[in-house]
Amino acid sequence: TTFKVGYIVGSLAKGSINRLLSKALVQLAPPALQLVEIPIRDLPLYSYDYDADYPPVARAFKQAIAEVDAILFVTPEYNRSIPGGLKNAIDWASRPWGRNSFARKPSGVIGTSPGSIGTAVAQAHLRGVLCFCNSPLMNTMEAYIQFKPGLISEDGTVSDESTTEFLSNYMKELHVFIERVLTVLPRED
Ligand code: FNR
């Protein structure tokens, strides 16, 4: 079965290495996964004062999540957690109360950093957040990608064979996971 996967890049930086990773994942995904980016850059800072009347940018963000079968988070680690911009986006999507966009929406988490633990702590935090948001999370594979200069080119081509294979397997597993979750928990909309 073919699925639509919305990917969210946790970094807003022009030179983001996680954006490069997302480009690599788009290239390496099996044909049955159709990847579309769900941007977070233009969301204002969330407050529940908006709950009665979400601004158009936040409505569009929730709508984009509603239109995909699963979400893939590609995130850096900032100060041993997820970037504030990503947490802000998740807060928007999780509200208003009773209209949590992540409920029953399968997700996967991946990230890269130059450090040797490759965003492991940020990913652990993100998993906690997504559990609370009732998103069925792919537990394995885990993917902590240590970024070395030249690992991924601007167009998303990965320069070393073992990383290429690992990322391809990650996307294959994500496909299997989405299929399994949506067989047990079919979408209601
Ligand atoms: C970092 N960096 C970083 N790296 C890491 O492995 N663990 C960490 O806790 C942090 N903390 C941190 C905080 C802040 C505010 C910045 C800007 C950076 C380094 C980080 O991994 C590196 O800048 C990556 O390039 C970030 O990914 P993007 O934004 O390029 O995708």
UniProtKB/TrEMBL annotation:
GO MF annotation: an example: oxidoreductase activity
Source domain of life is Bacteria
The coenzyme or cofactor needed here is: FMN
Span of domain NADPH-dependent FMN reductase-like? 4-145
Keywords, comma-separated and alphabetical: Flavoprotein, FMN
**What does the entry list under GO cellular component?**
cytosol
Q: Which Pfam families match?
A: FMN_red
Q: What is this protein called?
A: ACP phosphodiesterase
- Source organism: Rhodanobacter thiooxydans
